[in-house]
Amino acid sequence: MKNLKNVFIAAFALAIIGSCYKSKLNQPAPGELTAEEIATKKGVDGLLIGAYSMLDGLGGSPAITYANSTSNWIYGSICGSEAYKGSIQGDQQQITDAEIFIANANNIYFDSKWGGAYEGVQRANSVLRNMRLAKDMSTADTIEAKAEALFLRAFYHFEAKKMWNKIPFVDESVTYDAGNYHIVNSTTWVHIENDLIYAVNNLPRTQAAIGRANKYAAEALLAKAYMFENKFAQAKPLLADLITNGETAGGSKYALDSQYNNNFNIQYKNSAESVFACQNSVNDGSGGSNGDQGDALNFPVNSPVTGCCGFFQPSQYLVNHFKTDPVTGLPDLDNFNEVAVHNDEGLQSSDPFTPYSGTLDPRLDWTVGRRGIPYLDWGVDPGFNWVRDQSFSGPYLPIKNVYYQAQAAMYVDNDWNQLTAMNINLIRFADVLLWAAEAEVEIGSLDQAEVYVNMIRKRAANPAGFVHTYVDPSNPATGFTNTPAANYFIKPYPPGYFATQGQTIARKAVRYERMLELAMEGHRFFDLVRWGIAATEINAYFLKEKNLRTYMNGAVFTPNKNEYFPIPQTEIDLSKGPSGIPAMTQNPGY
Amino acid sequence: MKKWNYSKPVKIFTLTIIVYFKCCAAFSQQKISGYVRDMDDKLPLSSASIIIEGTNTGTSTDNNGFFRLIAKKGSTLVFSYLGYTPQEVTIGNDTVLNIPLSKIISGLDEVVVTGYTSQKIKEITGAVSVVSTADLTSVPDGEIEKILQGKVAGLTVIASGEPGVPPNIRINGIGNFGDVTPLYIIDGVQGDINQLNPNDIESIQVLKDAGSYSIYGVRGANGVLVITTKKGKSGKATMNFDNYTGVQEPLSHGLDLLNPQGQADLIWLALKNSGQVDPITGNPSSALYGNGPVPVLPDYVVNGNGYPSGAPQVEPSAYNIAPGMPINQIIKFNKQGTDWFHELFKPASIQNYVFSASGGSDKNHYLFSVGYLDQEGTFLETYLKKFTARINTDFNINNAIRFGENLQLTQSQLGSGSNTSAVLFTDPWLPVYDIKGNYSSENDADAGPADNPVAAQKLSKDNKNTNWQVFGNAFAEVDIFKGLALRSSFGGTFNFYNFYNYAYGPYDPAVGLDSFTENTGYSSSWTWTNTLNYSKVFAKKHSLKILAGTENVSNYMRGQGGTSKGYFSDDPNLRFLGNGDGVPSDQTVFSAATVSFLSSFISRAEYGYDDKYFFTATLRNDGSSVFGPENRFGWFPALSAAWRITQENFLKNSSWLTDLKLRGSWGESGYNGNTNPLNQFTVYGGSNGQSFYDIFGTGTSVVQGYNRVQYGNAKTGWQKDIMTDAGFESLLWNGKLSITADWYDKKSSGLLFPVALPALLGYGTPPNVNVGEVENKGVNVTIGSKGKFSKDLKWDLNMAITAYKSKVVKLNGMTDFYDAGTASISAGPIVDNAIGYPLGSFYGYKIIGIFQNQTEVNNSPAQEDKGVGRFRYLDANGDGVITDADRVHFGDPNPKFTAGINIGLTYKDFDFSTFNYWVCGNDVMDMLGESADIFPGLVFQPKSKAALYDSWTPQNPNAKIPIVEYDQNFSNNAVINSYPLEKGSYFRNKTMILGYTLPASFLQKFKINKFRVYAEVTNLFTITKYKGLDPELSGTSAAYGIDFGNYPNNQKQYLIGINLNF
Questions:
Q1: d(Cα A434, Cα A454) in Å, to the nearest integer?
Q2: Are the beta carbons of B276 and A391 separated by less than 8 Å?
């Protein structure tokens, strides 16, 4: 027994000595990529890909998918009078609040959009920070990585700048570790421009991967920034260079596609007209997350396309823009909204209906789905049955983001048929031409402006690019005839028209053309604001449109307030530094 | 040694007898026999122990209290029985000894396990409350919260009514913003109280002050519950069987909601008040209700549009929910309204079975128990099925060596849980089934059955969430010499879980697919404790105890799982990951692990003088791997002292004051339990959909990319708590009355919480940082009284009063306030933990009325969207304009006090007990009520009757609800304001039990020791002004007292049960 006791005591002694486990207090991070591992050439390129992947506004955190889309269908198009929220009353009420300008700083859509933009900014910054730590990157490698990262950082700041104007500029020195993140929201355009100037000077003309930014993408974004500041003198030479020398990252010289609708056809993405785009993909193992998520609600309901969700319905006001003069083929810049393009509101699909027979710009039916017109290869739009709630938000459907039935197998997600591989056209060449036209109107030649506008109109006039009727309307898959689906009639402005009419009319014509060409692409609201005519235009829109859409009764755009959206209250609250006073201040009027 | 066979207790008993005779053969002296009885009621005490002093020899009494042994004349017999004062008798000439034992007055000499050692209650210098099973016999022990709630002053338990959802347990207020769960030490090893079979618990010691819990160092600051499980006792094997069965009834009233006509009228009113009408007709319009001056209820609904009977769209032949053709689900509009509350809440049954056997010799003891609980929840398809088994044994090898083990096996199974707020997210017009008997779906025809809350629950019935746990320890003790013992304990938990869930997709697979997820994983943790214990009494009056030791704790978790989609059919038998459609993009997998380590040194010295003065000092050093190297190690000291005044001569013979002990303590402890082991690392990650990108523009493939997924903070250390406590424990009139009271001041600094970071830093999980300091001051008072009205009628009263004030003292770093994690609320955070305010304070715009007319609107401070019938907010800073700076702390979810009141009465063989719980002076944010009362915002949702009939109109100027409007705005409910604020006080009769114990004389014929039957009703009544379902609201420690439609915990339950001992 004595021995047994000694054995126990000895075992205890060993146990206590053996239990000095201080070394075990250094535990690794199992399964995680730490900062050391990411600071390599491979890691930095991965971070850059990660920074590109925010181009859709989504990734990294559960955001409100539809709020964040860089297609800006809500803030650019719906808030810009091109479309109604759609769907049914109350569904995503935050969008209606934005649409009728009652949204306040607690509207979660803004917080979400803000988060997406700054996640993009910080992903770009992550490239810059880790690039400097990497030991296996050459100088050329770092210049290229930096140029792409600064381009992206500028893009994301731009997304925020046009929404809120008063935004903080966040460069790579702003980190959690440094604790320097209580920043005054006083970014000037110069911050954004500086990043872009570096990108213009250091990016190559072409890239091995078509999705990467090249020199001309940077030049175009820089020109856009100048346009937002009305710095036409700076913009003009850049735009001229783009038009003369610009090419895509894939090496195609910039040009308008022969057919307008190719811009909205997945098969033709990354064409010569695509200056910079968010590359969307499906069936890639992500369960649809890399598809065009931001636009996932914007499909007809109860249709063969999808079952849901009926958002983003074009406004009557937008449709009326597309009327053309039966003689001149030109739009009526002043009185377009006096007489409406008639529609099927109040009619069931089973009720007879004859579409509008007047002359129309052919781009209408690639912009708006309307009763009686072929809806891509899905069949003739039946009106009521494909609309979620006609009485709430009218008879029209969005179409630019919609895929062809023939493409469904390849370019639509297996998981959810509202996610497609449709790119988001962030800048297309038509956009560049129209900025150039604007710049010419303001500080250059009205004739040259007219040349640019007419390039756009001539392309639109290509009959091959019209919507055509089906060979067999009961079986749309059999294809199209050569018969236009409606009475399309469009002409370029007669030579010298702009010069004859003078600057004011020319300006109006260029702006009107932007609406026709770029409608439903998320630009309109921001254009109205930079032109300084948002209050007049939007209040005029409400005055007329409230007769159609009851929820617009009483809606008003307050000048010097609603030009910019409210800065999310949460972000103001979180900008309190040690002083206890928020570094950021709210936009005027909120 | 002979191998013990647990399943044959009788054999062990026989063996004991053999050992006994062998031992005693050496003495071969006098034969002694007799009875051991309770001094008061003269009932026999079975299994009382009789030991010959100075030896390990002895015996125990049988069921009749009879014993027999052989001992030398002049030797001393020690008679002892748990809960009774031991008695020593020197053997003289009497060979028959009838020994009456007296019950220990409130157990002052009772030995209880505290930190690492055991102590006599009278010697404890810290604030320790003991809950022993003796106090629990009248409570059916299905739920751990019933044992604890209201029994211990300072211990707050808030339970959910949902089976299997663990209660929130807090000690002494709320010490941080994260996790305030106390440390559970079960038989010396950190464990999970929810995995225990409550019937296996012998006693729970609640360590409430630094003097008692600082010995647990970096894990101790939330307080410690030291739980001791039952052990076998020397003597004949006894067996227990307990069973109860019963039913729980859903709340009868549910929510007071509008019927479909009222709902439609309300929508019309909202649209009209908001001017959202046709400019010509002046009528609103909607797809459901037409466009007339009044809403017309349709007969049918298809794809969100209303149709009258006979419309072609509602011809049964047009019905389709099968894939391939457009979905055309035809739903009959339920004009009477569907009572979703009672469609979802149904009566539920509960059953519990416990069997245990225990016994042992004087040297070796065993206990074996099995239990099974089958509890349904009233919410459809919620349940808990829990199987537990326990084997506890201990062995004395010789005088110097002891070892043993405690082992627990648990299997518990839950369904996929509840979604109680669905009650308020489903329109009253929607029937449960469509015209063909399939589940209806509200929002979109193709949303599928998951859109219907009844369907969502019923279709979840094959989803399971199962957990298996092995928990326990093995220990050995050796006495090096008298007074010095070494102890080593190695124990831990091995936990394995499996979870699978089948989610029904929409009716149309083109819209979305059925999806199946299965996750499994394990966690493995071990604790190895080695202690050296020295105890000696010098000169009879000076007692000294010294403890020193080391402890290492290792935790490892690993899990993996996957999701697969596109199942051939909904057959539950096909629900395996490999049976999906096999499309790569329809499958996802994951695996993950975490690891952490704690290494510690423990020490304590106790000095006692003459049973009068007691001093204790503890010191612990901890190193924790969850913190970066800079702040990894720390020292945790504590000092405490006690003075038993009644041992002083001047009070020794007091006629009324039986015992009075004054206590005081001060100490430091820590908390690391909130912190992820990855906290110190900045982590990058890459996942498809989050950071991968189609940089080559293929449309169908991606390139890997990365992003930062977590911010690291290497400087974060643990939360440090400094606590001072002063108190007294008293017994008056021999225990007829007992009062224990404590005052404490607890400062918790360096609170660990993920700091809210501005979005301009980018996404990523924020690290826990040491965000601030909270102070809790409180008073805990326990008042007990027991005694007899007459020979047959006895009372036993206990009241535990808990009162604390918590206050945020300091918030470190960059932000001077902290908004709790309620970001999911679109209107902004409800809680702001700010300096100078109580924890969890409700925050927002304070409503000071409703604008009655335009003049009032014009004359009031500038306020966004101000208008007649809308809320008027307080201009807190008086600057004439309502801005975010005017948000104030308008509510406090912390009660002024809580009290648990236990009343027990026994009359002859009947016992009656009732437990009442009183929570007083707390505020509640009734968010569910708000969304029912105020129209804008959640316009699909059913609304309350008050929304239509008692909202503001010029004719109803005193309404609380603002004017009915369609859109949210700043001046109705687009921001958090004080509308949802309500008083949350309640008084609840939690349990009422009536039991009857059959007479022993009768039972003896059947060799039964005890047979009791009882009936119990829980939640018989609640007195409250709260208008929501239940003011007992759990939550996180940063945001609580907020009612989002919590699972009610006030449903009545009726039980009958038996306790059988043989």
A1: 10
A2: no
